[in-house]
Specification:
By secondary structure, the chain is mostly helical. The chain is about 65% helix and about 0% strand. The protein has 3 helices and no strands. It has helices spanning about 5-20, 25-40, 40-55. Helix 1 runs parallel beside helix 3.
């Protein structure tokens, strides 16, 4: 995470990534609502990077569409 972010922003980004990973959509929405109230562009890019880095590689993703 970025050194220019506050501890609260870093903790919130980690909580958002965890909630996304665990599929807790209601928590993601609540956390994002709180995060964007104070987030500047640097914080938003840090969140984007954290979410991108947390994604499984394409070869490891489970298929949601059955092959025909």
């Amino acid at each position: 995470m970025s050194a220019s972010l506050s501890d609260v922003q870093n903790q919130t980004i980690a909580a958002i990534v965890r909630a996304v990973d665990e599929g807790r959509g209601h928590c993601v929405i609540r956390l994002l609502d709180e995060f964007v109230q104070e987030a500047d562009l640097t914080a938003l890019f840090a969140l984007r990077e954290a979410l991108h880095n947390a994604r499984p590689s394409p070869g490891l993703r489970s298929r949601t569409v059955s092959p025909r």
